[in-house]
Amino acid sequence: MAQYLFKYSIRRFITYARKKLEMIQIAESEEINKNENDELISIDDVEKLEREDLERVCLSLAAEMACKVCLTKKINTVFVPCRHQCCCSDCAKRLELCPICRTRLKSAFRVFS
Fold it and tell me: Per the database entry, which stretches of residues form a coiled coil (predicted)?
């Protein structure tokens, strides 16, 4: 499930990035954009805003894929019986309860993506 959500997020991000790139190309061809107050803004300002949006999306995707226990390694373990995929294999070895739902764990499986 998490892999599907990650792939969906990546597809959504790529679509978002393509739309933003098209907007930048249109702005470059016109050389000047006007905002809601009819004030002139430069192409550099538009590009800076686009980069900030892309950086924010990248950071949120990285946070989604980080282990919820140590926050450093990539998520690669699924728990049984609750099927939550929320931590790395190192942290999973030390847990008795799922960090999400607090269900007692019977086993944990490593997943590859």
Answer: none
Residue 33's DSSP bridge partners are 41
Give the model confidence (pLDDT) of 39-54 as tens digits: 555 666 667 767 777 7
The number of beta carbons lying within 10 Å of the beta carbon of residue 77 is: 20
List phi, psi (to 5°) of 84: -75, 140
The CA distance from 82 to 50, in Å, is 39
pLDDT (tens digit, 9 = 90+) per residue, 50-69? 777 777 777 777 778 889 99
Supply 76's token pair. 């690669």
**Coil, strand, or helix at residue 103?**
coil
Going by CATH, does the domain composed of 67-112 fall within 3.10.180.10?
no
Question: What letter would DSSP give residue 105?
Answer: P
Q: How many CB atoms lie within 10 A of CB 33?
A: 16
pTM of the model: 0.50
Which two structure tokens, joined as six digits, stand for 102?
């607090």
Domain-wise residue ranges, the chain: 67-112
